[in-house]
Amino acid sequence: MRLQARRFHQICQFGGWILILVQLAMLLWQWTSLPSRIPAHYNAAGEINRWGSKLELLVLPGLSILMLTGLNWVSRRPQLWNIPAEITAENQEALEAVTLKILSILEALVIFWFALLETFMISGRSLPIALTLGFVFIMFALVIIAILWLTHTARKYC
């Protein structure tokens, strides 16, 4: 079970690196044609509420790289994880596998969100409200699903 979760994590990590490289390549390809001011922040309605330098376009890929390397480091140290269930010898492998899968899914979603946000920043467009609300709803739902998944897995071993 742990091996399957590790493989899933590696696939998500690989996909994340590919997305970051595509994001940076797109940014470099368009760099000279970008205006000096780009949308730098959006409010909850998806409207641009701050403009900034095009250098700020490097922030999201930089955060993605930090997140990928940081979560890769954390993924190799399950003793640091805050699992909301009692860990026993019987359920440890299953809980670690589930937690690693959840971390991988959340990591992939955030990197995808950053890449999508970067695309809107480059284009100078506002974010569609459905996109903003959809992301918040998906992340909230995933946190609840993750907690339920972990507690269900822990109970199977009680």
Task: Describe the protein.
With 158 residues, the chain is mainly α. The protein has one domain. It is built from four helices and two strands. The chain has a two-stranded antiparallel ribbon with strand order 1-2. A hairpin with a 5-residue loop joins strand 1 (37-42) and strand 2. The chain is elongated.
What's a quick, concise take on this entry?
The protein has 158 residues and is mostly helical. It has four helices and two strands.
Chain-wise SSE layout:
Blueprint: H1 2-30, E1 37-42, E2 48-53, H2 59-75, H3 92-123, H4 129-156
Antiparallel strand pairs: 1-2
Helix pairs in contact: 1-2, 1-3, 2-3, 3-4
Number of strands: 2
Helix content: 55-70%
State mean pLDDT (0 to 100 scale): 86
User: How is the biggest beta sheet arranged?
Assistant: 2 strands, antiparallel
Distance between the termini: 18 Å
Q: Give the topology string: H per helix, E per strand.
A: HEEHHH
User: Low-confidence stretches at least 5 residues in length (pLDDT < 50)?
Assistant: none
Query: Quaternary status of these chains?
Result: single chain
Spatial sequence of strands, sheet with the most strands: 1-2
Domain DUF1648: 18-64
Protein name: DUF1648 domain-containing protein
Transmembrane segments: 12-31, 51-74, 94-117, 129-150
Keywords: Membrane, Transmembrane, Transmembrane helix
Identify the notable features of this structure and list them briefly.
mainly alpha, two-stranded antiparallel sheet, 4 helices, 67% helix, transmembrane, DUF1648 domain-containing protein, membrane, DUF1648
